[in-house]
Amino acid sequence: MPIRMLDYQSPEYDQMVALRYEVLRKPLGLQFSPDELARDANDILIGAFDEEEILACCILTNAGEKICRLRQMAVRNSLQGKGIGANVLAFTETIAREKGFKSLYMHARKAAQGFYEKLGYQVCSDEFEEVSIPHVEMKKNL
Ligand SMILES: CC(C)(COP(=O)(O)OP(=O)(O)OC[C@H]1O[C@@H](n2cnc3c(N)ncnc32)[C@H](O)[C@@H]1OP(=O)(O)O)[C@@H](O)C(=O)NCCC(=O)NCCS
Asked: For residue range 57-102, what is the model confidence (pLDDT) as tens digits?
């Protein structure tokens, strides 16, 4: 399963946005605003592919001071629980290290907390609400 960086506003990026909508927004009855998507322009965009079809994705945002933030981690619904998310996150951590980041954090959905814990992330905040559901901040030194 090739995992690679992809370009903003490429055909692969369009697939990525469709996957993010399907997995992360549609179940909550939410859409992406143009402003939200415009934030992707300066980020590191990562996808896992089968041939030309995207299976999973995530985004890294430079948060300054050698810290990066993981956003929009999603695995196609029918393929969850098969190790794809763990592979994508491991690849993403390697990219982050190569780019000189020293730690990675995310606003993790409470429902996904166990996934990030398995990969060495620790909760570092109280619970808060985002996109209408409970989250916690989690982080890991790279
Ligand atoms: C959360 C998500 C990215 C995980 O990816 P995945 O491919 O399903 O997970 P993997 O199969 O790689 O799982 C790796 C390990 O984490 C565990 N795990 C996966 N999802 C979990 C969850 N929601 N809660 C607890 N543990 C979980 C797996 O059991 C596995 O453990 P093992 O190594 O002991 O077998 C994916 O399920 C997903 O897209 N979920 C819906 C969207 C979402 O919540 N995204 C995260 C937003 S913060």
From this structure: 999 999 999 999 999 999 999 999 999 999 999 999 999 999 999 9
90 lines ligand 1 (CB under 6 A): no
How far is the C-alpha of 91 from the C-alpha of 48, rounded, in Å?
Answer: 10
Q: Is 44 in the pocket of ligand 1 (CB under 6 A)?
A: no
Digit-coded pLDDT (tens) for 119-130:
999 999 999 999
Half-sphere exposure of residue 16: CA atoms within 13 angstroms, side-chain side: 25
For residue 57, the domain's CATH number is: 3.40.630.30
58 CA to middle of ligand 1, Å? 13
For residue 115, what are its two tokens? 């996934």
Q: Residue 15 in contact with residue 58, Cβ under 8 Å?
A: no
Predicted pLDDT at 76: 98
Tell me the residue range of the domain where 41 lies: 3-105
Residue 14 lies in a domain: yes
